[in-house]
Amino acid sequence: MTVQNNNDTIQETIHVIGGGLAGSEAAWQIANAGVHVVLHEMRPVRTTDAHRTDSLAELVCSNSFRSDDAANNAVGLLHAELRRLNSLIMRSADANQVPAGGALAVDRDGFSAAVSAALAAHPKIEIQREEIAGLPPADWQNVVIATGPLTSPALADAIRQLSGEDALAFFDAIAPIVHRDSINMDVAWFQSRYDKVGPGGNGADYLNCPMTREQYEAFVDALLAGEKTDFKEWETNTPYFDGCLPIEVMASRGRETLRHGPMKPVGLTNPRDPTVKPYAIVQLRQDNKLGTLYNIVGFQTKLKYGAQTDVLRMIPGLEKAEFARLGGLHRNTFLNSPKLLDPQLRLKAQPRLRFAGQMTGCEGYVESAGIGLLAGLFAAADAKQSSITPPPPTTALGALLGHITGGHIETIDAGPRSFQPMNINFGLFPPLASPPTKKPDGSRLRGNEKTVAKKQAISARALSDIDRWIADRLRTANAA
Ligand SMILES: Cc1cc2nc3c(=O)[nH]c(=O)nc-3n(C[C@H](O)[C@H](O)[C@H](O)COP(=O)(O)OP(=O)(O)OC[C@H]3O[C@@H](n4cnc5c(N)ncnc54)[C@H](O)[C@@H]3O)c2cc1C
Fold first, then answer.
1. 345 and 422 both lie in a single domain
2. What does the pLDDT look like over 413-427, one tens digit per residue?
3. Better-predicted residue by pLDDT, 284 or 410
4. Total domain count, the chain
5. 449 within some domain
6. How far is the CA of 156 from the centre of ligand 1 (A)?
7. In this model, does residue 241 exceed pLDDT 90?
8. 391, pLDDT greater than 80
9. Would 365 be classed as within a structural domain?
10. Is the CB of 132 under 6 A from ligand 1?
C-alpha cells in the first residue's frame, strides 16, 4: 500500500509486527517521521505464555527499567539517549514512575496504558489486532518484525526457514560475563590449552584461574547448596541446547564431574609456580572484539543472582569480579544477528524485513525499546528514500547496535561460538583514548575511583556524541 504525504511524494506504508517494547517505539518513531504505519499485534486474538493483558508494551515480568543514573550506569545512559530522541517508551515510563531509589520503576498498567493511548491517538498509526502467522505478504515492502522472545510459533517457523538456521527458540545457555579489568591478573594467566594456536588465536587466548583441591571442594559444596531458580511451567517443554547443562547440575552428578568437564586442569601450566599442578582450572574466553569482556567457559547456571555472585567470587582471580551479565537459562527466540542482519537491522536474505527488539539479540525492556527506536528511524528513512548513518559506537545506542550487527566474535581458538543476547553495559563501548588518572584536584585516582571515573568519562563522551549525531541529522533533514 502507498499513501500520499503532504509533500506529494509517494511513500510506502511501513508494517510493524508486534506491539511490545520495540514495536511500539518503532511505530512511534516512524509515525513521527511522517510515514504511515500499521502496527500488527496479535493479542488478545492470540496471546503468549507470559503476557497477561491486551495492552501494547506490556511488561511481562519486573516493573523496573533498572538504574536511571546516566553518569555511572550504562542502562541509565541509554535512558538519557532515548529521552533525547523523543522515545515514547521513556516518556510513558517517566510519566508513570513509582518510587524505587536510583532505579526507574513504573506502574505497569499506567505505563502500558500511556503507550497504547499515544499510539492509538497518532494520526499516522493504524493498529490491527491480528497474528501474522507466516512471512509477511510479498507486497509489504518495508516491514519491522518485533515479535520478541515469545514470537508466535507460526511466524518463528517461517523466519527460521528463511534464515537457514537450525533453531530459533531454545534455552539460552548463558554463561556469566566478567569485565576484564576486574580480574586479578596476579592470580590469572593467559594460555590456551596445550598452547594451541588454533585458527584464530595466538596460543594464549584464555584467562586461567587455578584452584587447589580444598578450593575446588569448597566451590562444589557452594554450588550444590546455592539457591536455584525454577523452570516456569511453560518452559519445561523446550529442550536444552546440546552440551549446555548448568554447572550445578553437572556438580550434582558427581563431585569430580566438573573437574573432567569445564574445569579440567590439563594442558595448562601456571607460570607463577610451574611445579604445582592445579587441581582444577576455570577458563575465561574473550567475549567481544574490544577484549573488555570475558565469559566463564561452560559456566551456564540457574543459580539465583545473589548466590551466583557469591559462588563465582570464590574462584581465585575473580574475588572482585564485576559481572556484565550473570548466567541463566530461559526460553528465548532470537536471530543469529551478526550473521543474518546488515548494519541497519535488515535481513540480508530479504532486506524488506527488518528486525527489532529482543529478537535481534539485545536483552531487556530498555534495550529492546532502543533497538526498536533505531529500526523505526532506519525504516522511515528507507520509506522516504533518504539515508541515515547509525549512531556512533561510542554511544549506548551505537554500542548496542554494534553488539548485534558486528561486535560478536564468531570463532576463537576452540572453534565457533554462538551469539548470545546481552544487556547494555560499559564493556560494549570502545575504550577511552586516554582513561582518567587524576581527580579534578590533581591527586591520583586509586582503586575503585579509577573504575568510577572511567565509566563517567565513557558516559560523558556518549552524551556529547549522541547530541552531535542528533544535530547532524537535523541539519541534513533541514537541508533536504
Ligand atoms: C518470561 C520473560 C521475562 C522477562 N523479564 C524481563 C524483566 O523483568 N526485565 C527486562 O528488562 N526484560 C525481561 N525480559 C526480556 C525482554 O526484555 C522482554 O521480553 C521485552 O519485552 C522484549 O521486548 P520486545 O519488544 O522485543 O518483545 P515483547 O515485548 O515480548 O513484544 C513482542 C510482541 O509481539 C507480539 N507477537 C508475537 N508474535 C506475533 C505475531 N506472529 N503476530 C503479531 N504479534 C506477535 C506479542 O504479543 C508481543 O506483544 C523477559 C523476557 C521473558 C520471556
1. yes
2. 433 446 777 889 999
3. 284
4. 2
5. no
6. 14
7. no
8. yes
9. yes
10. yes
End residue of a domain, out of 276, 300, 331:
331
Q: Tell me the C-alpha distance between 234 and 62, whole Å.
A: 18
CA of 60 to the centre of ligand 1 (A): 7
Predicted confidence at residue 5, as pLDDT, reads 45
3-state secondary structure of 405: helix
Q: Which atom of ligand 1 is nearest to the CA of 133?
A: 41
- Please answer whether residues 256 and 396 qualify as being in contact, where contact means their C-beta atoms are separated by less than 8 angstroms: no
Residue 472 main-chain phi, psi, to 5 deg: -60, -40
Ligand 1 atom 10 nearest Cα: 364
Question: What pLDDT shows up at residue 414?
Answer: 38
Please tell me whether residues 321 and 342 are part of one structural domain: no
Residues 313 and 200 in one domain: yes
At 193-216, the pLDDT tens digits run 888 876 566 888 889 999 999 999
CB 19 within 8 A of CB 57: yes
How remote is the CA of residue 90 from the centroid of ligand 1, in Å? 17
Nearest to 209 by CA among 288, 294, 292, 289: 294
Whole-angstrom distance, CA of residue 1 vs CA of residue 139: 8
From atom 14 of ligand 1, which residue's Cα is the shortest distance away?
364
- If asked whether residues 139 and 186 sit together in one domain, one would say no
Closest atom of ligand 1 relative to the 131 alpha carbon: 42
Domain that holds residue 49: 14-167+335-430+459-475
CATH code, 229: 2.40.30
66-119 per-position pLDDT tens digit = 999 999 999 999 999 999 999 999 999 999 998 877 788 888 889 999 999 999
Residue 9 forms part of a structural domain? no
